[in-house]
Amino acid sequence: MPIDEYLLSGSILCGEDFDVVEGYICIRDGVITEICEEPGGVDALAHGIVLPAFVNAHTHIGDSVLKDPPITDIASLVRPPDGLKHRVLRETSTHDLVHAMRASICDMVKTGTCAFADFREGGLPGVLALMRAIDAATSSGCAGAVDAVILGRPGGGKGGGEDGAEGDGVDEIDSILELAGGIGISSTNDYAEGFAAAIAARTRRQGGVFAIHAGELDSTDIRGALELDPDLLIHLVHASRDDLCRVAGENIPVVVCIRSNLVTRVGIPPVKEMLAQGLLVAAGTDNVMFNSVDIFSEMKFLSSLCQIDERQVLRICTRAGALALGLNCGVIEPGMDARVTVLDKDSYNLSGATNTLRSVVRRARAGDVIFCSGDAGAGTGARMQ
Fold first, then answer.
1. Choosing a second label site near 383 at 20 to 30 A (CA), which of 104, 134, 217, 256?
2. Pick from 302, 325, 348: which residue ends a domain?
């Protein structure tokens, strides 16, 4: 069988409802072409529990240069331009930054993640550094098919700048969007009046995705964020029911970051209410300075803290992220990109499990992964949106 065609077999979590099918899937040229219900043995590249690979819909992997700092108030840690992370990023060499980001990309692939969206600080140089990290991860053989949606950030802060004047930040958007998929900024409260609106307008004119943090520390920036007509909202920890109704009415995807919100002590987002309102809810691991990029951990927290069922949890961590980022993955169906992960169903951890879906969500961990489509030899290289 040629290298561009292979089989994966076992207990397959198929379709939007993740129904368990015993059989195999055929992958040809990076696309799922067939699902066969045939419990017998086949010559498969990997055998176990086959599930869609994760989509990490919100990361800050530049923070990989600052892991596990003391926890103080969130503003002191992450608010531009002089939060701890921004000071450290300014003092870090490009070489060290690229090396740290490469490690986090490889860690995502090894823990079953096929795609991520990164809010990349540092303007155009920051975007270029992330692209170098992706290339380095790919050439080292640990990131064969990871999709990176880069959301750059121009110079911006109170009065305009992490790195430059207000006008310089807006003008930089054109250069960023030649390489990145969009622009991702922090809270409207972090910018001088009118600056966030200028960023949003410039991004939209250039056809880029506009994403923004809102409702993380408190609710004061939610209305302002919605007035910018964003394509993607991050956090909404402090959103009211009226806020969620408006977000649902405007059909804006939301990315929740449960572990990050707990570590920074800002609260737990109302995920159950979001789903009840019909929002598209995806998951992200947020700042690497606080959390690993492991979505298995994110699933456990979503399951235990938000009182939602396993299908909803797995959808948040796979299909919803793909839809929010415009990717053709997150579900095992013919015609979808073959972004899949296989778990060892006979591992010490999963051996004897009787409910496959529940075990994947509540029990599975990175050590159970025996195959991920991002591994070398199972894809055609890193792709950037």
1. 256
2. 325
Q: For residue 73, what pLDDT is reported?
A: 82
Same domain, 155 and 40: no
**Residue 274 contacts residue 324 (beta carbons within 8 Å):** no
Same domain (yes/no): 68, 142: yes
pLDDT at residue 158 greater than cutoff 50: no
3-state helix, strand, coil in the chain (%, to 5): 40, 25, 40
Q: Kindly state whether residues 240 and 162 are assigned to the same domain.
A: yes
Segment 24-64, tens digit of pLDDT? 999 999 999 999 998 777 899 999 999 999 999 999 999 99
What is the rounded average pLDDT of the residues 354-373? 96
Range of the domain at 39: 5-52+330-384
In percent, the amount of the chain with pLDDT more than 90 equals 81
146 within 8 A of 382, measured Cβ to Cβ:
yes
- Cβ–Cβ < 8 Å for 53, 340: yes
CA gap 59, 224 in Å, rounded: 23
Helix (H, G, I), strand (E, B) or coil at 146: coil
The rounded distance, in Å, linking the Cα atoms of 66 and 364 is 28
- Scanning the chain, the segments in alpha helix (DSSP H) are 74-78, 84-91, 94-110, 123-139, 166-177, 195-205, 222-227, 241-249, 258-263, 271-276, 295-306, 310-317, 319-325, 356-362
Tell me the average pLDDT across 112-136: 95
Are 263 and 280 in a shared domain?
Answer: yes
**What's the CA gap between 329 and 143, in Å, rounded?**
17
Output b/e per residue, 130-152; b: 16+ Cβ within 10 A.
bbbbbbbbbeeebbbbbbbbbbb
SS3 251: coil
